[in-house]
Amino acid sequence: MTDEASVSALPQAPDAIELRHLRGFVAVAQELNFGRAAARLYLSAPALSRQVRTLERLVGCDLLRRSTHRVELTTAGETFLDCARSLLRDLDRGLSVTRAAGGEFAARIARFWAVVGDTGPEAGLQDLRDTCEELHARFSPPPEVGVRPVNTGGVPSFLLSPRPDAPVRVLYLHGGAYVTGSAFGYRALAGAIAAAVDGRVVVPEFRLAPEHPFPAALEDAVRAYTWLLDTGADPRQVVVSGDSSGAGLALSLLLTLREHDLPQPGGAMLLCPSVDLTCRAFPEPVEGAPSSRLTRAEVRRFVDMYLAGHPIDDPVVSPLLADLSGLPPLLIQVGLGDPVRDEARNLAAHARAHGVDVRLEVYPTSTHVFQVFWSFLPEAADALAGLGRFTRDLAGRGIRRGLA
């Protein structure tokens, strides 16, 4: 990369350079293919080509080398790519901060959660399931992430990946108090995670209570995990993840693997973990909070459906009561005003007390599972970047262990 200090800056950039020129060039530089870049930007390839030609004319030099079979960056293009990315990143961040200051994000999140809250305590389970699916249906995976169905040891699942040869595998267990949610509904968040970690994410359609109480969901999670190993995955390069109750299920999976002497994954990423099945984090009642409209009694009803008489003090389902020694490194993310904030902090302290390597990240938001809103919430985007850093750190540790 050229040292910026050694280059004399022009007095002013050409006024005719527009954001669309920069975004188009960055997309082509990332894909090195006009067709794929145009599809990402919802343009035709000829229109995108004209944009890049215009940018080159305004900059005053060629940024790309084009031939019949390939597209390459010139030296000037490599230099300009860093500048264009920085400009777009700063602009997007500035817009996000400005909108957040104006209260737009809080109001938008409140409208999304109102879909769930409007069901009310008298609603049936199917109504709640339908409204949860409606909430998630309002989002889509990033356009660069492919989605396809896959059967993971008899468990129907979705596999999401930004590229076929992506090296990192994440097993993602969705939230929903063990009674709602689906792999299909969580495609958007799983796709964002796939992009953030630059790797493949598998989301199993594990069975839900009350139709299938404990241990059905855990059995499905174990089957999906062992399928990853059976298909050649190095367990050190697998990361188990989940949000809310799905984070609790992820911990149940880790404890079960340890109990049966099965290989542990390289790490686990727990998003706003709900791990206290007594539901003490939920006040009675919860009113007017955009992050949750469910009362303690309602959430406890879902827990009872899940356990179906199984002892609540079983460490496998209550990790705060478990010996967590021997578990892999944990990344725990939670919002500052999330009802489960104290659960996350207690879990981090409990794991550290048992010698587990724990990274706790607390974000300035009150929304439960705020990562769902990655497409417009700055804190969520920052949290996904944190997932990427965590997986890269784990990959680096795996390489070092392999060389040892």
Number of strands: 10
Main CATH class of the largest domain:
Alpha Beta
Q: CATH-wise, what's the superfamily of the largest domain? A: Alpha/Beta hydrolase fold, catalytic domain
**Number of self-contained structural domains:** 2
Radius of gyration: 23 Å
What ranges have pLDDT less than 50 throughout 5 or more consecutive residues?
A: 1-11, 285-292, 399-404
Figure out the total of helices.
12
Q: Any idea what the CATH architecture of the largest domain is?
A: 3-Layer(aba) Sandwich
- Main structural class: alpha/beta
Residue fraction in strands: 5-15%
Query: What is the rounded distance between the termini?
Result: 32 Å
- What is the mean pLDDT? 86
Side by side, the strands of the main sheet go 3-4-6-5-7-8-9-10
Largest sheet data: 8 strands, mixed
Helix content: 40-55%
Spatial shape? elongated
CATH topology of the largest domain: Rossmann fold
What is the H-and-E element order? HHHEEHHHEEEHEHEHEHEHEH
Give a description of the structure.
The protein has 404 residues and is an alpha/beta fold. It folds into two domains: 98 residues, Arc Repressor Mutant, subunit A (Orthogonal Bundle), CATH 1.10.10; 300 residues, Rossmann fold, CATH 3.40.50.1820. It is built from twelve helices and ten strands. Helix 1 crosses helix 2, helix 2 crosses helix 3 and helix 7 crosses helix 12.
